[in-house]
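Q: Can I see a sequence and its folded structure?
A: Here is a first one.
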Amino acid sequence: MTTSRLSRYVRPLIGRDPGEAHRVATPLELFTDLCFVVAVAQASSGLHHEISAGHVTRATVGYSMAFFAIFWAWLNFAWFSSAYDNDDVLYRLLTILQIVGSLMLAAGIPKMIEHGRTGIGVAGYVVMRIALVTEWFRVAASNPDRRRTALRYAFGVMAVQVGWICFLFIPSWLILPWFLVFVALELCIPPFAESAGETPWHPHHVAERYGLFFIIMLGECILSTTIAIQGALDAGGSGSGLLRVVIGGVAIVFSLWWLYFSREDADILEHQNVARNIGWGFGHYFVFGGTAAVGAGLAIRVDYHHHHAEISGLTAALALTVPLTVILVSLYFVHIRPHDPSDRIKLAFALAVVAVLLASFTPAPEIFAGMVCAVLVGLCATPDTADVDLPE
C-alpha cells in the first residue's frame, strides 16, 4: 500500500482548533453515547431491583461503583475526541473498540452491583482504556509540542489498569477500599497530564457533549419509569399510585431539563482555569449518576405502590428524594453557581434541597418533590445574562 493510500486510512492525530467555528458533535460521538447508555440502563435497572428487594446499602455502593466506570470511560472519550478527532479509519476503529468495551461493561454491571466486581465488567473497562491509550500514543507521535502530555496520559492510564486487573483477585473485604484508591488515582491522571501542556479541547463542543449526554440520562430516567409502570399494568395494577408517579416524574424530569439548559456553559469553560474545568467535568458524575438514579427511584415508587417492594414507604421515598437532592446540589455547584453565585440563587437551591428531603415524609413524595422542582425552575431558570460576571 502506497503512502498516499495509507494516509487515507491513518492520518497524523493533530490537535484540533479550540476556536473552530460551528463545532458540533459528530454522528460517531452520538452513536457512542447511545451505546454507553446501554450500560447506564443496566446500572439503573440493577439499582431499582436491588433496592426493591431490600438490599439498599449493597445497591447504593454497587451502583456508585458501576456508574463511575461508565462515566469515567465516557468522560475520557468525550474530552479526547474534542481535542483530537481526525476521523480517520484508525480513529473510527479504535472508537468502535471502545464501544465494544462499553457493551462488555454493560453485560457485567448486574453482577458488579450485586457482588462489587465481575470479570467481564473489568475486562470491558480495560478494553476501553486500551483503545484510549493507543490514541494517546498516536497523539504523542504526531504532536511534538504535546508529547509529554500525551505520554503522561498513556502511561498513567496503563499503570492504573494493572490495579483494576488485580481488583478481580483481591479478598472481598478489600473491594471497596481498593476501588476508592484506584478511583483517586484515575482522577489524578488528567491534572497531572494537563500540567505538562493543556490539550486543545473545544469549549462549545465539550459543553454540547455534556448537554447531549444529560438529555440521554433524562431519557433513561423516563424509560426506567415507563418499564416499571408497564410491568405494574401487566400485573393488573392501577390506581392513584401510578398516576402520582407519572405526574411527579414528569414534573421532576422536565424541571431538571429546564434548569440544566437555562445556562450555557461554553463561555464559562472558556474563562475558567484548568483546575476549575476539571472540577466542572468531574462534577457531572453526580449530575448524571443522580439523574439515572432518579429513574430507578421512580420505578421503586411504582413497585411500592403495587406492593412489589420489600422496603418501607420511607425507604421507597428516600430512593427518589436522595438522588434528586444529589442532582440539585451538584447542578448548583457545577452548572448554576459559575453563572450566578448570588445569595438569592443559593438560598433557592438550599431551600429546595431541604424541601425535597422533607417530601420523603409526605404521603406522595413524588408529587411534592416535583412541585418543589417546578418552583425552583420559576425562581432560577431565567437568568439575566447581561448581569453575569465571568470569572477571571
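Q: Show me another, different protein.
A: A second, unrelated one:
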Amino acid sequence: MDILLIVLADIQRDARTLNMARTLRDAGLKVGVVAAGRLPDAEAGSGVTFIEWADPGGRAFLRMRSLREFLLCNVAVLLDECPPKALYAMDFFVLSATVGLGKQLRVPVAYDMREFMFSLGPLEGKGIKQLFITWSERRLLTRVKAISVSGTADSTIVSKRFKLKSEPTVILNTPPYRDRVEHSSLLRERFSIPSAAFVIVYQGVVHHGRGLAPMMRALVEMPDVHLCIVGDGPFRSPLEDIAIQTRVADRVHWLGSVPYDELHAWTCSADAGCCLIEPVSMSYEYALPNKLFEYMMARIPSLVTDLPALHDHIMRYPVGMLVDRTLSVGAITEAVRRMRVPATYDGFVEQCKVARELSYENQAHHVIDMVSRLTEKGRDHAIRNR
C-alpha cells in the first residue's frame, strides 16, 4: 500500500476523502481507507482497500478514542508486515491517532487541515475546549511531514501562524466534473413543494454559524420561498425551534444526510444554493466551503456571505449574489429578490459553467504530487530502517 487515508466519518458521506482516494487510485497508487460505513459499490474491487471502523456514535471524544484504539490495536497488527509508505490524517479528529500509528509503523504522516482548529465556529464561547484543541494541534504538527488546506488564504495564514518551512498544498473543496441533471424535481416531489415556489438548498453539516437561522428568519418575508436542508448535525433541534417560532416550519424541509454520490442529483433539483457563512470565528471568516462548488456544479446560483475568501471567489467567478456579512433579514431578502430577476438569474447560471474548470480533476495533480513526495519519503525511511 502506498497511502492510507484515515477519517472520522462515514466514507460515503465524506466528499474530500472519497475524491482523494479515487484520484490517487486512478493515478496508479495503492490506496487504503480507514473509515466508518462501507465503500460505494463503484469502488468495490477497484483497487481501494477499505478497513471498516465501527463508529460507536455519540460525543466526538468517545468516537476519537474508539478510532484510536482501533488503529493502534487492530490496524497496526494488520499492516505490520507490509505497512503503507505513508499515512494521511483527513481531519484534526484523527490526527493524534494517525501520528501514533505512524510512529508505530515508522512511516511519515500528512495532515488535511480542513478548518482553522485554533478558531472554530462551534466552539464560540467554549474557551477551555478551544485552548486544548489549539495546544494539541500545535504539538502534533511537529510530527507531520506535509499539510494540505482548502484555500489559498488558509495556506498563507497557516504558514505564518505555525512558521512552516514550506506552504501547505492547496486542495480546493471542489467536486469531480458532472453534467447537470436536467429537469430534476427530487426536492419538490419529496416535500410536495409547489412548482411555482423558489427552492433554496443548503447542503452540509447542520452547525451553529452556517447561516440557516438568518435564512429561516428571512423566509418570513418571502412566502413563496422554501428551504431544503440536506445534512445532519447538532444544531438541528434549535433550528427546528426557530422555524416553529417564526412560523416557517411548513417551508423548511429536512432531507438529512445522503451519500455523496447521490448529492448532485438532489442539488440540481433546487433553484439556488445557500452559502451564508456567519463570521463567528476565524475559521468561518476565511471559509471556502465545498457547498459553493457543489452548487456551481449543479448550475444553480448561490447566496454567499460577503467574507474575504468568498468575496474573492465571487468577484472572479460571478456565480451568485453576495449578502452583507450581518446577514440581516433585509440583506437576505433583497439578495434573493435581485437573484430572481430572470436576466440576472440566467447570467449566474451561465457563469456556473466555469465548474468544469474548477472540477477536482483539474487540481488532482496537486494531490498526486504531494502524496508522491510523501510516499517517497516513506520508502526512503523504510530502507534506512531495514
